[in-house]
Amino acid sequence: MFEARLGSTTLLKKIVDALREILSQSTLDCSDSGIQLQAMDNSHVSLVSMLLQNDCFEKYRCDRNISLGLDLKSLSKVLKCASGDDAVTISAPDKADKVQLSFESAGKERTADYELRLLNLDQEHLGIPETDYSCVVIMPAIEFARICRDMTSFSESVVIACSKDGIKFSASGEMGSANIKLSQTSKGDVDLTVEEPVTLSFAGRYLSTFTRATPLSEKVKIGMAADVPLLVEYPIEDYGYIRYYLAPKVDDPDA
């Protein structure tokens, strides 16, 4: 038996919104330690990893490991049926072909139950190697979202250059060019750890899609190193994270 209860549906809505633009379907791997998800987007350009530890939940029970294959757009539709302050319980028997979502209003005067068919998804588990990033930047998530939006209005490609002086985002296209640079601040709004400078080019539309996770966290962590995928990580309070990995574009970022 698997059962997990959150005191508020809001967090689950934010997580699903952060995932569903990249993944149409995915598998939640549930164990006694919590819930994990790992999947590549349809074009195999980006990878998403999510962790929710069991202490995130008001109640958590997982008698044996269970994988729940879900259509994320269908899950999003069900979540829209609930108010943000409704409690939500996700449950499934050990050999389930459906998962049940039960919502309960704060005063318990309204309850609602929905069932979603589970999907048999053949998803490979790719080992994500531990990477020592040459540059690690922690910055306000809202600022990162704004920069990605502004850059993609100029070009499909966004160049990110990180050095001890700061992190610089650049885009150039027919309309013109855009350059935004952030330096480390004494207030700690932007924090830089740089072992060696890195300049890489990325597909802007993926960066913009990643920023759908902005409501989850005030800060976003960016990790860069030569010839490895970019890391964009949004912590989920103290209970886990959503991490996006994006392969660099092969064209010369200095071109």
UniProtKB/TrEMBL annotation:
It comes from Drosophila albomicans (Fruit fly). One of its GO terms (biological process) is response to methyl methanesulfonate. CDD domains: PCNA. InterPro entries: DNA_clamp_sf (IPR046938), Pr_cel_nuc_antig (IPR000730), Pr_cel_nuc_antig_C (IPR022649), Pr_cel_nuc_antig_CS (IPR022659), Pr_cel_nuc_antig_N (IPR022648). Keywords: Chromosome, DNA replication, DNA-binding, Nucleus. It is found in: Chromosome; Nucleus. One of its GO terms (cellular component) is PCNA complex. This protein is an auxiliary protein of DNA polymerase delta and is involved in the control of eukaryotic DNA replication by increasing the polymerase's processivity during elongation of the leading strand. The keyword Nucleus applies. It comes from the Eukaryota. PROSITE patterns: PCNA_1 (PS01251), PCNA_2 (PS00293). Residues 127-249 form the Proliferating cell nuclear antigen PCNA C-terminal domain. GO terms for molecular function: chromatin binding; DNA binding; DNA polymerase processivity factor activity. The keyword Transmembrane helix does not apply. Belongs to the PCNA family. Residues 1-125 form the Proliferating cell nuclear antigen PCNA N-terminal domain. This is DNA sliding clamp PCNA. PANTHER family: PROLIFERATING CELL NUCLEAR ANTIGEN.
